What does this fold into?
Amino acid sequence: MTLELARIVRTGGRAVGSDIDETKLDLARAEAKQLGIANVEFRLADASQGQSAPEFDVVYARFLLTHLADPAGTLAGMWQALLPGGMLVVEDIDFSGSFCYPESAAFSRFCALYTASVLRRGGDPNIGPRLPLLLADARCERIEMNVVQPAGTLGDVKLVSPLTMENIADAVIAEGLADESEIQEIVEELYEFARDPRTVMGLSRAVQTWGHKPRT
It folds into this structure.
């Protein structure tokens, strides 16, 4: 996303991406160099720690707040990083909106495990509808929102669920929610479901919310 933002900023502008994982930052820097995108910078930083001084015209966070125990505190830090009149843009999920057709026991179990693992670790898997209020509490003005939800019978949209199940396996096992054999069975059934062109899979709803910092 940082690279996409770097492509669309005005002449002389730049995009700054941050993460708590230096390995991911190194990969991002390498990709930026490969693509010839020079107006971009990557910083090792924890979004939950805030920022001391205003610096940016736009601050954007995507699928971050759902994992945090204190999303309001993190948004307060993002608001602080904005210059007067700047825009705070947040996109996050409402996992409760995930669906498939026909009914799939593997999909239902995946949804239950994902929800439980996020809650166990202090996050909110359904934070999306809260975003406008969170922005209001962060002192944003002129708040607006939009909702999108990818779904389909073919293509990559149907692979997100099994891939996500694979990616959260360690967390699910660590929390004692399922064992490795059950997770493997769920993953296999989700891939089989995804390969069937007569099935439908819909991802979690993504709520997009944005507001402005007052100019004075």
